[in-house]
Amino acid sequence: MSRYYDFFCPVKLMAGEQALEQLASELASLGARRPLLLTDKGVNGTGLATLLANVLVEGELPVAAIWDEIPADSSTAVVERIAKRYAELGCDSLVALGGGSVIDTAKAVNILASLGGEHLLDYAGAGCLTRPLKPLAVVPTTAGTGSEVTLVAVIKDEASGRKVPFTSPFLLPQLAVLDPRLTQGLPLN
Question: Is pTM, for the whole model, over 0.90?
């Protein structure tokens, strides 16, 4: 039995009913003014993306756009398309609403949005990120992946078909909203 362990989690967890309503002010305190909201079609179809966008508007932090074209198994091509749109819209932050794929996609988009470049694979592996990234808030709609508090993102490279890991403390979101209202009524998978 080990006599030592350490735990490091710099992600600010905002938990409980009404946690969502705190997101706008917390994200704004990180310098966010124009977030891009990422989700998938399933979550968007439930109305949760609209609910979140409205909560941000009420908190005086309107989203630049909602991007809901994230597949269950995201890819480098998807990430690169979103990063290009992020730049075109003049965004300065990201909000991820969904499960592990959406959150990992947001982490990967944040790499390109923050560090530049057009090819996500240029940053693959461990220790390849050299500085903090732009503000990222995650709002999980599932319980299980833990992606909201990990320093890893896994994205499929369409060219090779392999899943590529990205690992860095800089990938950790700054905020995670754990509001039970966002998981009620959603499918178990």
Answer: yes
